Amino acid sequence: MLKFITPIWPAPSQVKAYTTTRHGGYSKPPYDGFNLADHVGDNAEAVAANRAALVEALSLPGEPVWLKQVHGIQTVTAYSDNANCSADAAFATAPGQVCVVMTADCLPVLFCDRAGTRVAAAHAGWRGLASGVLETTLQRLELSAEEILVWLGPAIGPQVFEVGDEVREAFMDFMPQAAEAFRPSHEGRWLADLYLLARQRLALQGVTAVYGGDFCTYTEKRFYSFRCDKVTGRMASLIWLERGCE
């Protein structure tokens, strides 16, 4: 049985958003069960069946625009012509265009405006987050900060996301307050809080209506975790505007 997470945020009714879990689906171990990524070594037919089940279960208005994610900052419109292009965020300004990002420890970030006219989804691993994928996505939405709502989906939690000095320095070079998001670990390493880092980056852009951020893909077995399992599937975080609301 497929299971989904529905964001708890004050989005308008025409904004539809979900994150998948690993429950249900057709993939066999180690991708069991609802893997939606076609680049991780899973059986292609199983992935296709999972994607078809996703469309049916959520009554999607069309096929999501699956991206080739590269831990960068490129943002594209959620048109079918952009499917499989190299990008880490997609946005839509018209109903029926489904934005989606895939993750298995990285942070999925969903955006909408209070009026329900624009949506976006961004894939924010630490590299993309440090490079500015959230800022780039905000620029493409062309909205004032006060109009924007953000939901932070399932990512690796701050109790287990261990990183080296280079990660901490990448964030602190941009904003010294990023030091608050790192706690000393063992052997000179650090425990990083992706959720806090995202909130800090968004706050610098004036965006403070930020929700979610209370998951851990590493410790919660309903999620895929690359750091925990190495060979594993991917969840999808999707957002779109419902048709009939133009």
Please give the structural blueprint.
Blueprint lengths: L3 E2 L9 E6 L23 H14 L17 E3 L11 E4 L6 E5 L3 E7 L5 E6 L1 H6 L1 H9 L6 E5 L9 E2 L1 H8 L9 E3 L5 E3 L1 H11 L5 E3 L13 H4 L5 E7 L5
Parallel strand pairs: 3-4, 8-12
Antiparallel strand pairs: 1-2, 2-13, 4-7, 5-13, 6-7, 6-8, 9-11, 10-11
In DSSP terms (H or I, runs of 4 or more residues), the helix count works out at 6
* Tally of separate domains: 1
Q: What percentage of the residues does DSSP assign to strands (E)?
A: 15-25%
Mean pLDDT: 96
> How do the strands of the widest beta sheet line up side by side?
3-4-7-6-8-12
Q: Please identify which CATH superfamily we are dealing with.
A: CNF1/YfiH-like putative cysteine hydrolases
Helix and strand composition category: alpha+beta
Output the CATH topology. Answer: CNF1/YfiH-like putative cysteine hydrolases
Order of helices and strands: EEHEEEEEHHEEHEEHEHE
Low-confidence stretches: none
CATH class: Alpha Beta
Radius of gyration: 17 Å
* Outline type: globular
End-to-end C-alpha gap: 33 Å
Q: How many E strands?
A: 13
| Proportion in helices | 10-25%
What characterizes the major β-sheet? 6 strands, mixed
